[in-house]
Amino acid sequence: MYQSTCKKCRRLGYKVCDSAKCGMVRKPYPPGQHGKNIRRRLSEYGTQQAEKQKLKLIYGLREKQFKKYFDTASKKSGITPQIMMELLERRLDNVIFRLGLAPTRRASRQLVGHGHITINSKKVSSPSYSVSPGELIDIKESSKAKKTFSETKTILKKFNPPRWLELDKENLSGKVISVPDKEFLAGLPVEVSKVLEYYSR
After folding, report:
1. CATH superfamily membership of 2-77+189-199
2. Contact 161, 99 (CB under 8 A)
3. Separation of alpha carbons 199 and 155, rounded Å
4. Nearest CA-CA partner of 98 in 160, 147, 143
5. 3-state SS assignment for residue 119
6. Strand 117-119, strand 136-139: pairing
């Protein structure tokens, strides 16, 4: 999985996976024998497509899933790029990752799928669940003793989540206290407007 994704990172010229061993870190150029010598100038369409691929890979979504977020965002009133990013950031797997309860979004999806996560004390098994402000994200009490979480408290000692999230490091739980703000969304490494232009052609 990571090896395949990391090749995509190198093609895009940006590290979109969560792997600390991503090939993009060691070889920051396109894959292949002549990768170091490739100097590509993308067309406007190529740029739009690259930004779409980048964003899709960051959140680990398939095309059909990803397109649904655009369709939903475009139907809501407000600034479409901002709405789309809010929807992506509020995915349960992403929130768990942002809280530091899992090292990668892929790991977050596994935690949810394996039944380790609760929302307001009720088990939720869908990684795409949209977490609303005020909802409490927790690791099931019976799961906290498992090896998966044996080092989580130690890792969290030096970890601080984005300010739209609240983290209880002792109890391994968290809460969405607001929607992601403009400043946070503006700092994300994607030109969302290009993604919207791609789908609006």
Report:
1. Ribosomal protein S4/S9, N-terminal domain (1.10.1050.10)
2. yes
3. 39
4. 160
5. strand
6. antiparallel
Distance from C-alpha of 142 to C-alpha of 157, rounded to nearest angstrom: 22
Q: Tell the CATH superfamily of the 91-176 domain.
A: RNA-binding S4 domain (3.10.290.10)
Cβ-in-10-Å burial (0-12, 13-18, 19+) of 21 comes to: exposed
Are the beta carbons of 165 and 176 closer than 8 angstroms? Answer: yes
Report which DSSP code applies to 191: -
Q: Are the beta carbons of 198 and 51 closer than 8 angstroms? A: yes
Is pLDDT above 60 for 24? no
d(CA 173, CA 116): 12
- Confidence band of 33 (pLDDT split at 50, 70, 90): low
Better-predicted residue by pLDDT, 54 or 1: 54
